[in-house]
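To make this tangible, this section ends with a sequence with its structure tokens:
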Amino acid sequence: MFSGSMVALVTPMQADGSLDRDSLNKLIEWHISSGTDAIVAVGTTGESATLTVDEHCDVIRQVVSQVNGRVPVIAGTGSNSTSEAIELSQHAKDLGVAAVLLVTPYYNKPTQEGLFLHYKAIAEAVDIPQILYNVPSRTAVDLLPETVARLADIANIVGIKEATGDVARVTEIKSLCGDNIELYTGDDANTVDFILAGGVGAISVTANVAPEAMHTMCAAALSGDEQTARNIDSRLVLLHERLFVEANPIPVKWALAEMNLIPTGLRLPMTVLSEKYHQPVHEALNAAGVLN
């Protein structure tokens, strides 16, 4: 249903934390002209945790309007409250997104049965394609392949963003689910290996600053052109690493500000990138060839 380089889009903000709508529109146009295959709004990288519900929905509305059907728009609507995830997913559907991305409930550490029932309830309540999102490093819970297999039998659960960093998960999930679910990596560093193992794309932080390279790399890997994909990836290795020297999206927003694409704003408790990391991130941008 979705494939290729799907950017986990930042939400541009002014220094005071207010939303920068003009920069958001400019980013969207840049991504579309650069070949980005889908735009994922208000996920972790989009600072969904510090947006109000009204802001969350307003950003989705703006992205859908600006994209205007040119590429799929996927909205982050996950929550550690099942009822809130249902509410956000319904809003996103009403605003016209192609799918929703649902992070595993964080902090409250549900059991595998709790995870299954959480996702089942959302799928039954909101008739829209839904993508599971497994990122144990942030949520303190791991959506295991056996649970994914149970969920894959639900018709509108169509994919999973796997951000464990474990490429072996591709083989394990595919062996249990067959073609019932698509796999997207949430770990830029393993994108090529993930796709070659049977994944269909990346929901990418790196694509925020190197959209054309990520699109071309994913397309090459999907077509089986491993050498081209690895050649491109070799220029992006430092970005994959250094965009995570502090918690996402701190480094990527600093990088985009260095590229004169957005202001420097984040919302507390996120803070501007520590000075000691400025040079390493700048080196990664240079290595990727994305600075003017």
In short: The chain has twelve helices and eight strands. The CA atoms of residues 8 and 40 lie 5 Å apart. The first strand starts at residue 4 and ends at 8.
